[in-house]
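Task card 7
Instruction: Convert sequence to structure tokens.
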Amino acid sequence: MKRIISSRLAGNLLLLLNAGMLLVHVLILLKVIPSHFIWGGRINGESELVALESLSVVIQIVFIALIALKTGYLLPGRFKRTARIGMWLLFGFMILNTAGNLASISGTEKLFMTPLTVVLAFLSLRLAIEK
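Output:
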């Protein structure tokens, strides 16, 4: 896998994609983007949407910080073990997220988010195996 993509490129792509996802979640909260295609199309009301999307924003920020830590953009050389364990957890989360997207009743989510989470899982794995 190390020959397929460098850890630097994987990290940069992960940062870019996660920043994009963070933007999408914020735009959903601001009602710029419709919310019918997220959370498997199973949102029941405005309060549930706000709670779940707020959680998504926090999770995205944690992911971005973790990736920045692993790639050395944030606190270079520090918390290496935390970053390594965190990347394995992120990889596992992306695998579960892919399964969730495949089970979605929203065709839009299934069509667009499933390939994205597969790519995110692959990139997360690439960073996780990096020393």
